[in-house]
Amino acid sequence: MLTVLQRIVEAVNQAPDLDSALGLIVQKARAALGSDVCSVYLADHDAQQFILMATEGLNLDENDRVTLAFGEGLISLAAQREEPLNIANATEHPNFKLVESVGEEAYRAMLVAPIIHQRKVLGVLAAQQRKARAFSAEEEAFVVTLAAQLATVIAHAEARGLVSGHYSPWLRNLTGLPGAPGVAIGEAFIGKPAATLGSVVPRRTEFPWREIHKFRKAVLQTRMELRTLAEQVAEYVAEDTLAIFDVYQSLLDASSLGDAVESKIKDGWMAQTAVKMAVEDFVSKFEDLDDSYLRERAVDVRDLGQRILSFLQDKNGSKPNFPDACILIAEEVTASMLAGVPRNKLQGLVSLQGSANSHAAIMARSMGIPAVFGVSQVPLGYLADQHLIVDGYSGEIFVNPPQQLMQEYEILRKEEFELAEMVADHREDEACTLDGIAVSLQINAGMNVEHDQQRLGHYEGIGLYRTEIPFMMRERFPTEKEQYDLYRPVLESTGSLPVVMRTLDVGGDKPLPYFPIHEENPFLGWRGIRMTLDHPEIFLVQVRAMLRANIGLDNLQILLPMITTLDEVDESIRLINQAYFEVRNELLHSQPGAVVNRPKIGVMIEVPALLYQLEAVAKKVDFFSVGTNDLTQYLLAVDRNNSRVAGLYDSFHPALLHALQFIVDRCRELNKPVSICGEMAGDPGGALILVAMGYRSLSMSTHNLDKTRWILRHLDSEIMQTLLGKVMQCTHPDQVRRIVRLKLEALGLGGFVRAGK
């Protein structure tokens, strides 16, 4: 049976569409079982019925539509019980329902197995025989196994919109991950890099200096191209988003990618081969990271390498002809690819790979371009020249939608524009509820930032500045001077507003290219403060650079990540004090009378163990900052990057909500400031719940500032407390989400969580 099963699965995987796949399954399963009939029913949950999609043995005409309502027949009983039914004489069973139109009255024996994917019943696989008999245990196991395999096939087909036929229960649509909110309608345009690393055939050279000259020329051409692209989008994106191109430029520096490529050339490889080897080495290290933000930098490195390669291969030809209403689609949309499409034509984007942490997603949100990422199992060519609707809220993509749906989304898109204009008109307002509760809105950053106050509107500092980027993009640890040169402009850019800089948060889950760490379970390993305290020479250099960059500005605050014990706090403070006295004494020696202020020190609450040590830690630090991303992950024991369990990762999980309430209540008792710097703070519903709990400082991505400010200005504490009371009684994240969504709809704020106004 195992060999037969493998052959069926192989044949199904090669089928061009779901109809063909189902036809193959019923044909081959009937032959393997020796049964008279084999059929597949799919569930239409909206219509509450099962549809006979394929059969071998029953009389189903091409134009017939045979259905069974939920609750009818043995088909429904197997689905309801979520277990197989093996009945010797089905006609005598009280739940049996005869379907006369397909000639079912002749069959007695019946074996029915539900088709289930991720706890959802997608349909039923049924075998029937004229003779009354019980199917054997081996036959039952075979059908159950085949149904489990079929569940994956159907789920992928549903996600890909490949379910065809007039009796299909699904609209032809795809589903991905929402990357940037909004509604886009237009024609698909397939974007492809001018050159690919995979096309390079490794070749050696006897003239390395000639190859180095070619490489340096290609780097110069790439710099000029990136500068042009940055200028093209400068009018439409915020200054901090433009810093994406600074990251690209810094990667081209000799201390980053340049040295690595030239080293390969000196080893005897041609320039194209050296670029391929060096870039793929960088990419593999980034892709191994568990931090989703940093892992997405692999996309940037690959994009940059392929741009250099295109100049080495002289493949930068004529500009493509973009459709007037362009939906950019690629295997992996990059920031530079996005910048290459004229803004007056670009309506939306779809990336088959990638996530909301990619630079393309960050740019899309800054430009107001609806985006969907991670559209799994779809061939790129399937979308070519298709007319699409892209819903950046739900992650849905409708392929060649019917006219009625088009009209509905046109109305929703018009409402989107009206809402965006209203919100933008009030971006200079402070975040304050209707009854006067002030909330400090800050931003998260991880690159060079020179913020444009006019575009950002009112904000109150940088609540989280990630310092890992310069460490990740070099072939060695950055010097104190290099770090100073990075931190100083950041501190200057905010004026007197505070900048919370997190100390180096790398380790087993975020290995440095030049400092590899191999661990079986990196999330629970040598990372964050654990690693830097074991290497005080790294920690001290970074803190010294921060303190020197803060001289004369005094807006620096230092945040310690991954704190688990009180000893880690004590040792960190000891080293910060050591660095402080060193910098102060050096400055006094050169400038007598100069003042160096010691910055405030905070601790990230992301390890659950810290919840029970807050009182002891509060005596030693100035503030707390809750990292909801890692706290959720550790509290729920879920790796959010593992697709098998990622569905369990939910910031609305009741356990996390109760932990967050405990934290803010305890910090209030201890008279210690606490802020939120995870993704939950930028979610409209999340921000509402957090403020209701008592949090008064939220740090988020820049694109979430305006909508969070607007929502808070249209709520009062009574509404929020009533909502919080209901939310804290929920036992499932979906209940929380539904309550929040209904409340926002009732308040006329539904346009922040779905398409429309």
Automatic annotation (TrEMBL):
One example GO MF annotation: metal ion binding
GO cellular component, one term: cytoplasm
Enzyme class: transferase
Domain GAF intervals: 17-164
Cell compartment(s), UniProt: Cytoplasm
Family matches, as SMART domains: GAF
Entry keyword set: Cytoplasm, Kinase, Magnesium, Metal-binding, Phosphotransferase system, Sugar transport, Transferase, Transport
EC number(s) per entry: 2.7.3.9
Matching InterPro entries: GAF, GAF-like_dom_sf, PEP-util_enz_mobile_dom, PEP-utilizing_PTS_enzyme, PEP_util_C, PEP_util_CS, Phosphohistidine_dom_sf, PTS_EI-like
GO biological process, one term: phosphoenolpyruvate-dependent sugar phosphotransferase system
Cofactor: Mg(2+)
Swiss-Prot/TrEMBL catalytic activity: L-histidyl-[protein] + phosphoenolpyruvate = N(pros)-phospho-L-histidyl-[protein] + pyruvate
Protein origin, superkingdom: Bacteria
Family: Belongs to the PEP-utilizing enzyme family.
Protein name: phosphoenolpyruvate--protein phosphotransferase
